[in-house]
Specification:
Oligomer: single chain
InterPro entries: Phomopsin_biosynth_assoc
Mean pLDDT: 76
Number of domains: 1
Number of strands: 10
Order of helices and strands: EHHEEHEEHEHEHEEE
Structural class: alpha+beta
Largest sheet: 5 strands, mixed
Keywords: Membrane, Transmembrane, Transmembrane helix
Strand order of the largest sheet: 1-8-6-4-5
């Protein structure tokens, strides 16, 4: 994924994602508090794991990773890989968390588009094909992607399951932490854009333990 041009857009190619939805004034404090608490909690867990010797980029233990999905959607499909909309990526079945993905997608109905102006809708069925090239959605998807990625990572640690290579990326984890703590970029690190651009990627599995 790839990102961060808050003045115009929020790109998703080989990293995480974003939010911007209005809430009643009396609850304006709630969302940042939730995001901050979640970010600090996950960072504490990951810091403890790293202190125990876990390499996020190149895990040294655990089962052998499954075969590669190749370099194209057609090859990935032919090799039995699965397309995960929440990761915008083709994944080997061993690191595809289907039920988690379904949970998150319940709130994504009718929020995908073919254009950056968000005027030409795409259906979830079209997205599930995983060969659409580029899609666009509201900036909130970026934050939901980050939360999804962290939950997958924690599930993998808890259940000793393989996890996709983006979720195992230290850079990706830090990006999401910065975005969740400061979604509007007030600290100068960049924030949410007017929309999220989602380009398909192909990932591998790795061991988080």
């Amino acid at each position: 994924m790839a990102f961060d041009k808050p003045e115009t857009k929020d790109e998703f190619e080989s990293l995480p994602m974003a939010i911007s939805a209005e809430k009643p004034a009396r609850r304006a404090w709630l969302r940042p508090a939730i995001f901050l608490t979640m970010a600090l909690l996950v960072l504490a867990v990951l810091t403890n794991t790293l202190a125990s010797g876990w390499s996020m980029r190149e895990p040294q233990t655990g089962p052998d990773p499954p075969a590669s999905c190749g370099t194209s959607a057609a090859t990935a499909k032919a090799r039995g890989c699965k397309y995960d909309i929440m990761m915008a990526a083709w994944l080997p079945p061993a690191c595809y968390y289907q039920e988690r993905s379904k949970e998150f997608l319940l709130e994504e109905q009718d929020q995908w588009y073919r254009d950056a102006n968000l005027t030409t809708p795409m259906t979830l069925d079209e997205l599930r094909l995983g060969d659409y090239g580029t899609a666009f959605t509201r900036s909130k998807f970026h934050l939901r992607h980050c939360i999804y990625m962290w939950i997958i990572l924690l599930d993998g640690l808890k259940d000793k399951r393989l996890v996709d290579s983006d979720s195992l990326s230290a850079e990706h984890v830090r990006h999401c932490a910065n975005l969740l703590v400061d979604p509007h970029g007030k600290g100068g690190l960049g924030g949410l854009g007017a929309y999220s651009r989602i380009d398909i990627s192909i990932l591998e599995c790795g061991s988080p333990w």
